[in-house]
Structures are given as structure tokens and as C-alpha cells.
Amino acid sequence: MDSTSLLAALVLISAAAYFLGHKKSLAIAGNSGGIRSLHSLPGYYGTMVALWCLMPALLLLAVWQFSERDILQSITLDSALISDVPDDEVQRGLLINTIENVAAGGLQTDNPEHIAAADYLNELRSSSQNWRSLLVIAIAFLGSLIAWLQIRAEKRARNHVEMIFRVALICCSLVAIFTTLGILLSVLFEASLFFRQVPFFDFVLGLHWSPQTAIRADQVGASGSFGAIPLFVGTLQISFMAMCVAVPIGLFSAIYLSEYAGSRLRNTAKPLLEILAGIPTVVYGFFAALTVAPAIRDWGQAMGLTTSSESALAAGAVMGIMIIPFVSSLSDDVINAVPQSLRDGSYGLGATKSETICRVVIPAALPGIVGGILLAVSRAIGETMIVVMAAGLAANLTMNPLESVTTVTVQIVTLLVGDQEFDSPKTLAAFALGLMLFLVTLVLNAIALWVVNRYREQYE
Amino acid sequence: MSSASNLSVADRVNNSLQRRYAAERRFQWYGRAAIFLGLAAVFLLFADITAKGYKAFVHTQVQLEINFDTLEMGLPANPSAEDMRRADFDRVLLLAIYERFPEVTGRTERRTLRSIVSSGSVYQLQAMLESNPELADTTQSVWLIADDEVDVFNKGYVDRDAPEAQRRFKDPQIAWFDDLDSQGDIRIVFNKTFFTNGDSRDPEQAGILGAAMGSFLTMLVTLLLAVPLGVGAAIYLEEFAPKNRLTQFIELNINNLAAVPSIIFGLLGLAMFINFFGLPRSAPLVGGLVLALMTLPTIIIAGRSALKSVPPSIREAALGVGASHTQTILHHVLPLAMPGMLTGSIIGMAKALGETAPLLMIGMVAFIVDVPGSISDSSTVLPVQIYLWADSPERAFLEKTSGATLVLLAFLITMNGLAVTLRRKLERRW
């Protein structure tokens, strides 16, 4: 039985289990004076039986799925069908791959040992599948039977079901912790492998980035150099340009929309600006690479400047457009949170509206606005597609916005896309960059969230 | 002593009024300019992509007289499916082209000539004959998909007055095109191929079905994982969780994850799901897992605020008539919070649908022709397809890229519009 039909069978069995549990509780109730003699509603008895049918069976199925592949492979290798199984990890992996491919019918081979091993593997696989179906269904029946036998009038089925429900909910919320942990572990682990090959300070303080590693050891330029300063500078440069676009436009439009605009303008302009937040970044990247960058290059050349067609300016400007709604909606929130009494006080002293905004509302809202801008900076630093498509690959250490620079995210993508061996410093460098990116954005977010929260409390 | 100090306060205020009102007006203009610039960016973006992309939905076809000569094709009487596959439709196509332009005889010229129709046309002919075997040994006029260069020329992207050296579409090709055009053998029709094909190296044969299917499967995995997990976590944190270190830590994590760059989730997917758990590369399964983890914070945060907006009186009433805590939440609070949760989920899914960067990390950037059929097949998704096409040098792919972008934007606008309508329709003000 394949996984889909096995799951379908499980669903059917659990439905039957629900029905039986429900029926038994009703029968008990009928013998002893109606439903009110039961501790819980009959549905809870049914649910209890169905849950004990599903949970152990699904757990077994998951464990089986997870471990089946490795176990079957090692059984095949240990089966003495292959005369010389290599001890080397990599060679073993290659051999297993070959056998897997032969077994799947994707590879023709003349090696009789491989064919025999592949046949054996297929045989194992089909018997494993049969055993799996058998055991899973048996466990499902067993689970339901035990739960069914426990049904009595005084059985606290509702509490039982609610407890399971609550544990499930806790597991759902723990996913957030596991995700963070997973990110940290995977990035830290690979990055630590990288720092074993490249010293940490060479990476953080090095001025030269060219991650080509040689195929042969004696090749010219065999040692790639991993100085990440040009990437950090490029990232900051592009983010700075994005902020130069996004902060004035976002802030002023938020101020205008919340303080001056009538409800009609507000109700049309605000959703229109928020469209920008919903556009996928790849679309911005396309726009930057094929419309904005050529336009900037042409203008630059018309003014007699040497302009790269992958200028930092194009990527930065388009990224700024992307961040406008982010800045404006965050600023909008904090400006609206400033109590009206502050404004009224300022008007009462005879200040004009703009004076009130500049000297009372903005200073009062400043922590919130700064927090919002920090969040926007962290988003700009981590933004990938725009820079991958519109910024260059060459790691120039330059401040000229018309030249091409590269960023951390661009390098992560270039290092990891395409064929790769997983232990070369080239691919591991991507994880080291990822670690830097994660830490920097983490710190920025933490500061920003702290500032915003403190500010919110101030007026509550 | 300066003269200003001789003036009364009222005079000084009155004197400064003009300057202050000017500053007020200037300030308002800054605001208007900012809004104008923002809206101009929206408009420019859409206008640019639409202008580049709307022609991707039509394509050029060329009409040729095809003689389905069984002798030339090497097709026996009552052919089997295997015979059909082996039959030399290329030969028939070439004969038809040569017959249409008998004056072209040179080898190189003929080679250029044959590329006037798409190389995929043979499959079209094969499909025709397969569906209607009676066409054998008859001559039919057939509309075939034109080569991308013909298409590009026909759509007016090539300046025919430019010097020949600057054009990829040379003078003889223009002459053949004009000849066909004057006979009415060139037409522009709706581009069905764009919606029914997978990716291809030939721009005229490339379509978005493969990528759209990949997106669908990926979204399916994301939906099935992120929504239950997100709703569950939201319920726990908002309704059950005691205020302790653990729940504070969970909340901190969720807020942080919401702001972690998406590419980091790609690194997680690569290191965790692919290298550690050994899940298949390039598969919608892994893509969906990664995107689910990425959208989870969005859904949790939206879900919590939806639960928060249900007034405590509802809970108290339910508890008052004897419902348990869980019953109160499942039977009374959750149904009332559902519209808000649904809206948050749709917005989260829209974000996931447009996401590209993490999918690049887990290998969903491969060139894949086949339309994926299951969540473990290699596939790509719409945004990645856009990225791949945007990198292609051919002029015709530029149009495809914009076309695919328009399709993606249409999906996203529909989803966001749906979220907004749902919120308007179902939201209750208490």
C-alpha cells in the first residue's frame, strides 16, 4: 500500500473508531439513565478513541518514513551482494547512488553486482512497504481498542481530549523556537566549518573578495580570498541609498495622509501606496535591471559620467521604492498614537499645523519612527532579489554610486546556486555570510522592537 | 537697541505670520510631493511591465501548405503510436517551406529559411495527424507557430530601417516575411502555448504552466502546514499560555522571525531539509516547508490580533453557561475570529507566492521542461521562472518575463483583493 492509500485507510479507520466510541458511550448512557449520567458528551468519547487510533499510527508512519531509506541502504550494502564495499564515506555514497539509480530504472548498467543489489533493494523496499502498512494499521486498531475499552460513564473523556488538544497547540507554538534554533544551528555549524579553513578576522576585516577556489591544488590563484569588507560596504551603500529614497517619501506621505489629507485622498492614496508592499521582490528586480538601470546608465553617459550598467544607484533606488510603504505605514501608526492633547496644546499656543507637526508631533513620535526606520534598514540589508538582478557581482570597494558593487545577499546566492560540493570554503562562505546577515538583522530588529515597544508604553 | 524690540508682541507675531504661513504651505507641498512620487512609482512600475508584457499573450503564426505525405514521412499504412513517433515530420515541414519559397536554393539560405517557423512545429503536425489519421496524404493549410525572431519582428520590436548589421533579422528574412504577410499567411492570435507549455529554450515554445503548477504544489504544502500551525500557535499564545519565561521567549522568537530576511530561511532549508534530512532538491515539498516556516509569523501575528478583537463578554457568557475553557474557544471565540485569521492567512500566502530568494537556495532554479505532477518532482515556481527568464539574452524572453510577471501580479492582486473583501464582508465591529 503506498503512502496516500495508507493515509486514506487511516482516516477511514479513525472515522470508524469515532463512530464506535460514540456508540459505546451512548449504550452506556442508555443503561444508566441517559446522557447526563456520562461525564462528557458522547462526541468526546468518540474523539478520544479516534485520536488514540490516529496518533500512534501517524507517529509510527513518520518514524518509518524517516528511517526507511538509510536502513534499507545499509542492509543492501551489508548483504554481501557487493564484493568490495569501500570503507570511504564518499565512495560508499557514490555506490549507494548508483544502486539507487539502477533500482529506480534510471540507469542501465552491465555490472551484475549492481543489478543484483538493485533487485535486492527493490525487494526490500516492497516488503518494507508491506510491513509498514501492516504495522501501521495494526497499531491503529490496537490504539482504538485500548481507548474503546476505557470508555466508562465516569471516564473524563472531555478533559482527556482537551489535554491532547492543548499539547498539540503547545507544539504548534514551539515550532517558532525550533525554527530559530534550526536557523542558528545550521548557519553556525556550516560557518564554523568555514572559519576552520579561513580565519575569522581575515573574513571580517579582509579587503579582498574573490571566492574562486581552484579545481586543482596547484592552479594559479588557487587560494580564494574571503575578505568580506567590500560586501559589507556594498550592502550598506545600497541600503543607504534605499533609505535616502524611502525615508523622506514614506515619512512625508505618512505625515500628509494622517494630518492634512481629507478622507477621500486618504482612502485612495493609502491602499495605492500599500500595493507597493505586495509586489514580489523579483518584479522589483526585473524593473530595476531592465528599466531603471539602463535609464541611469544612459543619463550618466549623457552627462559624460562613466556609469556601470549594474550601478548601485539603480538597485538602491528601486529598493527604496519597495520600502516606502513599510516606512509610511509604521510612521503612520506612531503618528496616530501621539495623543491629540499634545496637538491641541500646541494649537492653543498659536502654532501653525506644520509647526505643531515639526516641533511637537515628530519629536513625540521620534522613538517610534526611529524604530520603524531601523526595521526598514534591516529589511534593506536582507533584501535579495533586487540586488541579485540589478547589482553586480564584482566586489569593488568603492563609494561611487554609479559603479557596480556587490552585496552579502548577492554573494550568498551566487555561491550557493548551481552545482556545488558541500565542503569547499566557497559554499561554506555563503553560510558565514548568512551568519553575519542573521546576526546583524537580529540586532537591528531587537533594538527596533525594544524602541517601538517602549515608545508604545509611553502613551498607553 | 534693535528696532524689533520696540515692536509689541502682537506686531512681532503679525510680522512673522507671512513667513510662517509660507513655511506651512511649503511643508504641505513636501507632503503632496512625497505622495505624488510614491504614486508615480506605483504607476510607472505597472505601466512599464504592462507595456513590456501585454504582447506576450499573443503570438505570431505562419500559414503553410503541409502535405502529409506518408512516403516522405516513412509512415506505413495503419501506423502504430511508435510509427507516429518515428515518422519524419521534419521532412514534411521542410518540403512545405521550400515549396512556399521555391526561389530559395542556397544551403545556408535554406537553413535560415527553415527557421521561420518554430522547431516545435513538428510536434504540432504530429499531434494533428494523430488526432485525425485521415489527414494522411492530404494537403492542408496549417497555422504554425512562428520562430521567436519572426514574432519579435512582427510585433514591431525590430527597426526594419536599421542597418542590416545591427539586426538579427536579416534582409532576406524581412523579404520572406513581407511575402508571407502580403499573402495573408501571417497572423497574430492568442498565445495558448504560453499557458499550456512548460519552460523551453525556444522562446516561442516556452510557457508558464510548469512554473504555475510548481507554484500551486508549493503553495499547497505551505497552506497545509502554515495555516494549522499558525492558527494553533495563535490560539495557544493568546488564549492558553500562562505569562512565563517560555511564552515570552516564544513571542520574542515569533517577532524576530517575522523580520528575518527570507534568504536566511533558504539557508535553513538547504542545510536542514536537504543536507540533513535528505529531502529531494528542487522539490515543491522542500519549497513549501521553507515558505511555511517563513509565513508562520505573519499568520500567528494576524491570528492573535483577530483573537484579541473578540470581546471578553463572549468568553464570559460561554464560561457562564458552563462551557469549558477549550469549548469556549473552539465553539465561540474561534468562529468569530475566523475572518481575521483567514485574511491574515491569505496575505501570508500571497507573500509566500511572490517569494523567490529562499527557493533559489534549495535548487528550485533548475531548467525544467516537464510540468511537475507531485510534490517530490523537480520543479520551479512562477517568481523563479521570472528570474530565470529575466536573465535570458533573447529579446523574446523579455516579453515572456513581463507576461509571466503580469500573471503573477494578477494572482497576487486577486488574493489580496479577496482578503480585503473578506475582511469587509465578515468583519464585525463590537
Concise summary:
The complex is a heterodimer of chains A (460) and B (430). With 460 residues, chain A is mostly helical.
What can you tell me about this protein's structure?
The complex is a heterodimer of chains A (460) and B (430). Chain A has helices spanning 3-31, 42-78, 89-104, 112-149, 157-197, 200-205, 229-260, 263-278, 281-302, 312-337, 340-348, 353-382, 385-390, 408-416, 425-459, and strands at residues 209-210, 225-226. Chain A has 460 residues and is an all-alpha fold. Chain A has 2 domains: 3-155, no CATH class; 225-459, MetI-like fold (Orthogonal Bundle). Chain A has a two-stranded antiparallel ribbon. The two termini of chain A are 60 Å apart. The model of chain A has no long low-confidence stretch (mean pLDDT 86). Chain B has 2 domains: 59-189, no CATH class; 209-426, MetI-like fold (Orthogonal Bundle). In chain B, 65% of the residues lie in helices and 5% in strands. Chain B contains 18 helices and 3 strands. In chain B, helix 10 crosses helix 17 and helix 11 (245-259) crosses helix 13. Chain B is extended, with a radius of gyration of 31 Å. Classes of the chains: A mainly alpha (460), B mainly alpha (430). The interface between A and B is large, with 89 and 88 residues.
